[in-house]
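re the bet — no i am not wrong, look at it urself. input seq straight from the record:
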Amino acid sequence: MTAQTIIPPTSGKEIDIKEMPYGAFMDRFIALLIDQIILFIVKIVLILPAIGVLLFLVGVVATPMLAVGTAFAPSYWALLVALDWFYFAAFESSERGATLGKRAMKLRVVDEAGKQLSFGRASVRYFSKILSAFPLLLGYIMALFTKKKQALHDLIAGTVVTTT
């Protein structure tokens, strides 16, 4: 059996899967912080005006605080989760295989064979992060101790984070 190779689009070099350079824990953490800052800005720009309009419209009929607490909150949180999910799944399943934060840190997410993720696998990876977060972020901390620096969500989705 021959060794498979991966060609990151940003470097043009072939990487032997057996010697794949895995993403360091701190690089992954910084990439996540960058992504969260970007998502925060997007949410402020896109969602706050919508909240204002909805509060105005609902305020005509009922008390705004009551409306936010009962009718609006579930759809608001669903929208936030959908935005996060689409951001991570779309970018990680793209040709570059990286969110904007991962690109900044020169990281890429691939499957264990070194190939580009499908949108479905990237979605599994995203939703598996819920399990990585509980309890006490132990699923994330696992990346410090696994051979391929995989967090729990990487193990579940069959993915690895590599350097480009």
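see?? The longest strand covers residues 107-111. told u. also Residues 58 and 67 are 6 Å apart (CA to CA). so pay up
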